[in-house]
Every structure is written in C-alpha cells, then in structure tokens.
User: Which sequence fits this backbone?
C-alpha cells in the first residue's frame, strides 16, 4: 500500500473515531436510551468527550516525537476541531435544552456558579483557536503569531479539568485522572523545553 493511500485511510479512521461518540449519543437519544435524566446525561457526555479530545490533541506532539512519527501532527487540527464541536454542542445543549434560552438564568449561572464561569471562560478562549484553524488564517497570522495564539490551549485544558473537578459532588477520582493525564502532557512539554537549556556545556580540555 502506498504512503498516500495509508495516510488517507488513517485520516478516515481518525474522523470515524472522533465522530463515533456523537453518532452513538445521537442514536441513544433517538432510542430513548439515555436513562432517567437524558438532558443531564447528554450534557455530561458531550462535555467529557470534548475534554477527552482536547487531551488527545495535546498528546499528539509528544507521541509524534516519542514514536518518531512526525506525520501524526497532521491529525492535530481535525482532533482539535472535533473537540471544539463537542464543547459547542455541550454548551448549546445547556443553553437550548437545559435552560430553554433563558438568558437571564444563564447569566446568573455564569456569575454565580464557579464551574460555569470557568467552563464559559474555557469556551470563549477556545473560539479564536477554532476560527484560526484554517490554512488561510495561519497564512494571515503568520506561523509565529499563530503558534503564540494557540498556546492558549495550555490554559484552556486546565480550565476544562477545573470545571469538571468543581462540578463533581461526590467522586472526584474521574476529574483527578484527567488532571493527572494533563499534568503528564504538560510536564513532558516543560521537560522538552528545559532539557536543552539545562544541558551543561562540555568542559574544555
Ligand atoms: C472547554 C470547555 C468545556 C469542557 C472541556 C467541559 C467539560 C465538561 C465535563 C467533563 C463535564 C462533566 C461530565 C461528567 O460528569 O461526566 C461537564 C459538565 C457540565 N458542563 Fe461543561 N465543559 C466546558 C464548557 C462548559 C460551558 C461553557 C458550560 C455552560 C456555560 C458548561 C456547562 C456544563 C454543565 C451544566 C455540566 C453538567 C453539570 C451537572 O450535570 O451537574 N460546560 N463539562
């Protein structure tokens, strides 16, 4: 199999993997299989898949470097845009289905419930990243400014984890596990950044 065909097949597989949870959720909603509180389950599942894909997106660079597979980087944008789609649907379900577009109640929620304030901040910061993910935007911004802007992701994902941690009432283990994965992924970046700077110049003979 040629490299191009293999790349195309992997690309289709990435698309299907990102789309599968959404299709499964849509099917469960259609089938009435979302349990006793379908709206809450829908919001929660869309949120958790948004967070998972954000973490997968953050894992691409370390994986590409560790496995020496630079071609993996090409999937980062697709995964990031799917993460944004899940978060957008998560927010839309909250606004439209949970709150029935009651903007006053939504405003109150944003102001009074810290987990909603943090979730909203993460979403607002995510929008410019999604908007600037086209080739045209990358060219317009220039790679340096584009890269600087996209460093916002290092703030957005921790906010997503904090949002999850604050809304959980009893078992804090799931958000802590996501937090540990995030710490590992960010820790790798700090290590990768610091390594060449820490390397001691060899002593002259
Ligand atoms: C990057 C942005 C966001 C991420 C990654 C995210 C992620 C999550 C996660 C992981 C959960 C818990 C899922 C579970 O319990 O299994 C959740 C729940 C929830 N999120 Fe978000 N979220 C984000 C933004 C928002 C925004 C902008 C809002 C609304 C303004 C929001 C409202 C909610 C609500 C209402 C719940 C359910 C709380 C409950 O059932 O008690 N989220 N979110």
Assistant:
């Amino acid at each position: 199999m040629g490299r191009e065909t293999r790349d195309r097949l992997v690309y289709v597989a990435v698309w299907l993997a990102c789309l599968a949870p959404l299709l499964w959720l849509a099917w469960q909603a259609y089938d009435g299989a979302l349990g006793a509180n379908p709206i809450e389950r829908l919001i929660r599942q869309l949120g958790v898949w948004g967070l998972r894909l954000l973490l997968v997106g953050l894992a691409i660079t370390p994986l590409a470097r560790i496995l020496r597979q630079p071609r993996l980087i090409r999937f980062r944008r697709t995964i990031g845009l799917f993460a944004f789609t899940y978060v957008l649907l998560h927010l839309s379900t909250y606004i439209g289905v949970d709150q029935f577009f009651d903007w006053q109640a939504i405003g109150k929620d944003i102001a009074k419930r810290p987990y909603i304030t943090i979730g909203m901040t993460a979403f607002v910061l995510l929008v410019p990243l999604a908007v600037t993910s086209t080739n045209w935007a990358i060219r317009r911004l220039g790679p340096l400014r584009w890269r600087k802007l996209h460093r916002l992701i290092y703030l957005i994902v921790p906010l997503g984890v904090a949002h999850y941690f604050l809304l959980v009432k009893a078992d804090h283990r799931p958000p802590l596990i996501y937090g540990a994965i995030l710490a590992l992924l960010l820790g790798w970046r700090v290590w990768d950044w610091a390594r060449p700077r820490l390397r001691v110049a060899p002593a002259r003979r």
